[in-house]
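User: Predict the full complex structure for these chains.
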Amino acid sequence: MTDTPPTDEQEVALLREIEARAATLSRCADPLMQGQYRHLLGRVTALLAIKGAMPGGEPR
Amino acid sequence: MAAPLAFRDASATLARLERMSRAELEALQLAKLRAQLDRLWQGNPFYRAKLEAAKVRPEDVRSLDDFRRRVPLSTKADFLADQEAHPPFGRRLGVARDAVTLVNMTGGTSGQGQEVYGRSDHDIAIQGYLHLLPWFMAGLRPGQMVLNCVPTGGLTTGGWGPPEGFRIAGATAFHCGGAMSTDAKIDLMLRFGEIHFIYASTNYLHTLSEALRRRGIVPAERFPSMRAIHIVAEGYPMEWARATERFWGCKLHEGYGSTQGAGFIATTCEAGVVRDDRERGVMHLLEWINHVEIVDPESGEAVAPGEEGEIVLTNLDIVGSPVLRFATRDRARLVACEECGCGRPWHGIEAGTIGRYDDMLKIRGNNVWPLTVDTAVFAEAAVAEYVGRVFVDDGGRTAVELRLALKEGHADLGAQGEAALCARLAERIKERTNVQMQLRVVPRADLPVFTYKARRWTDERKAGLAT
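Assistant: Here is the predicted structure of the two-chain assembly.
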């Protein structure tokens, strides 16, 4: 970890990583957590769209 | 007024879009549009059927012009018929039913029915962003104190988008619209003192300003930290905008949005609603999120800059209940991006003059837009509010009555002063509409107080003819 702010490309790469992990989390069987993880995933796909990385983000 | 912020390049993410050439922006739009068309073709039976009926496949759309020429318009009636046939969301939903985490509905004020929009978590985040972005452009920054005067919650996008937008802005927001009286809101502002940003309908900002005047409070002096006010929903005269900026001591900004757009579709840049102290501002279209066409409603052809036309809307980032070439019935004047002078490549629509094709009143053969009368009436600094009534008089003729209420400081005009005001306004309205209207001044308490969108006009002609 460094204090250097991420570059634009690094931001997108980090979001992609989080997206993959959030997609895994959203398959969780616990109904208490499932909606929250889907919310997290939706937030990340929207951030990717906002960063211009993914036209028309799909909920997975 | 507070010192201007450095708006351009305030965000690296936005700067990329601000510094694009027009050609680069259109290429981005086309890429996103083609991705959206592919997605709809694969997973949205409503649009698949519409495209198949028009004999268009996604790969046939090779340019934005192809899109305009080959893809048919969608209308409110199409959506209502789809919902009727496939309740409750219609086949237009396009995502799994259990992916819907927010339902938005249109207001139903057209009398035709309410469109239903099923939004996914992704869409809710985009809706929040489509509220944050205009406010960021107006100068809102993390940590600032906000008064949100638009009623929250309910079923409309306008009730859910703003709280989400302020939350992701990192702002400290008071969501007091609809929940508190105007005086209670002023008390809240006085209690917390440091307010930076207000979001309100045009009409409610007018009500709030009136209430402050009544209490002898000058916001430019009492709230010197105010950075911007962002208004929505209604047009206004330039005189009102200039006076409001002076009264508040900050820039006035405006956004145009709708449920179909999932939030704001256009917003003013740092110039605000008054450019160079004389020109109407430009609401720049956020064209990489919603593709916007301004077309002649009769011919369907794109209008030229400076001309008025109907706003036709296509979502590029929304997945649940998206719209594709939706004919909004909203009327706007197209402004080419070069005209603003801010340098952004985003085309725009004129601030302060958005109207509805549906609002038009046909009076003695003349097309009368409520906005035209609003602009004439509110150019008079003494007028606080008005309502209009179209009816059939005892002689069977169509007549129009306007009842005006005056602001607190002008309530002592006297009979002569009131008569002069009414005569002056009647002449101005006649010049702009070709309709002679009867005006009279009434006490302020006789007229309603509108907390969001003003509904100033009633048409009683059918009732009058029936009796």
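The mean pLDDT of chain B is 91.
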